[in-house]
């Protein structure tokens, strides 16, 4: 009888030893899942707030960045699919980007869905000929910045869902990176660009100069 109980206890301990590490490993790896789908290279310093980002990686409009490139600028853009009855069509917008070999890191749909088009560690061609307040010009602007596109026409304003998504995304970025400038495309290329149009900066806490 005692031998039987001992045997059962032994089996129990053996099972516990076998199962427990697997169980703890599962919990550990689950906590490492990057729920926002963000680049692991830049996360982990602080805990970013939850932001839902879906990947829609492009094979144009960007180049591989230097590892740990310094990002301290965020440029906000607006875009729409021109000459069509469906100006909010994302694939149409992306086709236009492809035609000029340009892209941004993120694009925000009218319903607030955020797509990541280019990994943050990579350099997206979104600023064009432009100048930052500190005098940084040209390609160097792309090198140190992230670009965020919002889909709406020049006759519209961003939706509340778009603004809320943008706020979440900016909060997330600011938790991970030390951002010096948050500006519109028209601030850095005033002679060429007017986007983001009809944009109420007070809704996202103003520009950062
Ligand atoms: Zn723009």
Report on this structure:
The chain has helices at about 1-30, 90-100, 140-145, 160-175, 185-190, and strands at about 55, 60-65, 75-80, 105-110, 115, 125, 145-150, 180-185. The protein is an alpha/beta fold and about 210 residues long. It folds into two domains: about 1-30; about 55-205, Peptidoglycan recognition protein-like (Lysozyme-like, 3-Layer(aba) Sandwich), CATH 3.40.80.10. The strands form two sheets. Strands 1-5-4-7-3-8 form a six-stranded mixed beta sheet. A two-stranded antiparallel sheet has the order 2-6. The structure holds zinc ion.
Q: What class would the helix/strand composition place it in?
A: alpha/beta
Cα end-to-end separation: 80 Å
Rounded to an integer in angstroms, the radius of gyration calculated over CA atoms is 23 Å
Q: What is the strand tally?
A: 8
CATH homology group of the largest domain: Peptidoglycan recognition protein-like
The largest sheet is: 6 strands, mixed
Binned, the helix content reads: 25-40%
Q: Kindly state the mean pLDDT as a whole number?
A: 84
Task: Tell me the number of structural domains.
Answer: 2
What is the strand arrangement across the widest sheet? 1-5-4-7-3-8
- By CATH, the architecture of the largest domain is named 3-Layer(aba) Sandwich
Unreliable segments of 5+ consecutive residues: 15-47
